[in-house]
Amino acid sequence: MISKVLIANRGEIALRIILACKEMGLATVAVHSEADRDALHVRYADEDVCIGPALAKQSYLSISSIIAAAEITGADAIHPGYGFLAENPHFAEIVGECQLTFIGPTPNAIRLMGDKAKARETAKNAGVPILPGSDGPVRSVEDAIDVSRTIGFPVILKASAGGGGRGMRICSDEAMLQSAYETARSEAERAFGVADVYIEKYLEHPRHIEIQVFGDSHGRVVSLGERECSIQRRHQKLIEESPSAIVTEALRKRMGEAAIKLCQNVSYVNAGTIEFLYQDGEFYFMEMNTRIQVEHPVTEEVTCMDLVKEQIRVAAGEPLSVPFGDFHLRGHAMEFRINAEDPVTFAPNPGKIREFHMPGGPGVRVDTAAYRDYVIPPYYDSLIAKLIVRGKDRQETIARARRALDSFVIEGVKTSIPLHRAIIEDARFIRGDISTRFMEDFAWRLES
Ligand code: ADP
Q1: For the chain, which end, N or C, has fewer CB atoms within 10 Å of the first or last residue's CB respectively?
Q2: Which residues are catalytic?
Q3: What is the CATH T-level fold of the domain 132-201, as seen in this structure?
Q4: DSSP letters along 369-429, please?
Q5: Residue 277 Cβ < 6 Å to ligand 1
Q6: Which atom number of ligand 1 is nearest to the Cα of residue 286?
Q7: Within 10 Å of residue 422's Cβ, how many Cβ atoms?
Q8: Domain 207-447 - what CATH class?
């Protein structure tokens, strides 16, 4: 039984989890840094505990402070959200050892999938297609060259412990690989504490299509369809949608079955996402994220499910609420990530929000912890709101997105709203003719 949930996170996801708890009649505990005293998640929670200074290392990443906050307040479960400690197996282990329920997968599953080179191997053993590449991390630059000659250039060097779009190098020939190898290793060591890098064939115009999975502690795993996340900047997602414009019922079934097979192989419990790259009719496993994703609302809108409530129920030992039998996505949904950043250079732009007006009306949802006069601290992620729109089909969804983006007012800081407004007017975007290279070819001017 879970009766009081501590949310080990901040921002929109902390608020999102609090809302789910409220609907379930569960008490909530917010934790916050000194910089987040005025944050909305603190105001919405039943109780709150300051866990340290602004720097995440000393607050949102401090395992001992978070466990102490849970003990002081008598919380019996911890939801990690995404980012921070969400995919730290050590944290999940300690939560369990303290007789608290971790609302997420087991430490073992997190550990196995957290190493991207190992996850590739696990996927391969489960019979899930992977891109040609190295078997595990490469041992030397000679090894890297050997593998690349066999699979053919271009290749991509990836940090085994990488994430968040960081720790990747594209190499189009041997000379580039020679010079990138050591730099990639030392960058990986510095950013993630592990120098290991592995090699994958680099696809020139793939689509990023991921499958939302859910497992329960009774051995059942389901696929909740796909999200396409091909609109990215610097390998980070900007717009996500479900269903994908190109996924047929047959392809959805094939991808879903591959994702389920992989989860069953690692006895996966709770929410997870299997990311694939898709090109020329084939899909390839890229990585698994063992947490709730930023873009989970898109799936919620087309499945009529509340994924966060489902996470809590499953963590409490209940079976999945997904009905047995055929599963269909209903309508279409898109999410636009609204970051406090310069829409042209992508430089973060924290500061005070002087005016804030959210759009509403049919099919519009905004997940945010921002408000008028809120001061966005410079210490954390630049995501300040997610605009989620739903329609009966892709066309209606884009029309709703257009009017919602037009009436979304955020003043005082620069945001990605103007960029989103430009993207949804692009003929290729409207046709659904997109790939992860979309933004490279996208030319637009910021209207003043
Ligand atoms: P992270 O864990 O940092 O998010 P991913 O492995 O999920 O990294 O990759 C992020 C993005 O990088 C993908 O969505 C895609 O745009 C690009 N990418 C990754 N691997 C490849 C590849 N083999 N070929 C082409 N693009 C890739």
Answers
A1: C
A2: 291
A3: Dna Ligase; domain 1 (3.30.1490)
A4: ---TT-EE-TTS--EEEEEEEEESSHHHHHHHHHHHHHH-EEESS--SHHHHHHHTT-HHH
A5: yes
A6: 6
A7: 18
A8: alpha beta
CATH number for the region 4-103 comes to 3.40.50.20
* Residue boundaries of the structural domains of the chain: 4-103, 132-201, 207-447
Question: Tell me, what DSSP letter sits at residue 141?
Answer: H
Q: What is the mean pLDDT of the chain?
A: 96
pTM more than 0.70 = yes
Atom 17 of ligand 1, residue of closest alpha carbon? 235
- Measured between alpha carbons, how far is 236 from 344 in angstroms, rounded to an integer? 15
The helix (H) or strand (E) run that includes residue 212 is strand 207-215
pLDDT of residue 448: 61
β-pairing, 282-289 vs 221-233, is unpaired
- Return the closest-CA partner of residue 408 out of 429, 435, 389, 380: 389
- Nearest alpha-carbon partner for 385 in 366, 359, 400, 372: 366
Number of residues that make up the chain = 448
H helices, E strands: number in the chain? 15, 20
Q: What are phi and psi of 233, to 5 degrees?
A: -125, 135
State the distance from the centre of ligand 1 to the C-alpha of 165, rounded, in angstroms: 7
Please state the atom number of ligand 1 nearest to the C-alpha of residue 208: 14
Could you tell me where the DSSP H helices lie in 215-285?
249-265
With 0-12 CB in 10 A as exposed, 13-18 as middle and 19+ as buried, what is 141? middle
Regarding the beta carbon of 228 and ligand 1, being less than 6 Å apart is answered: no
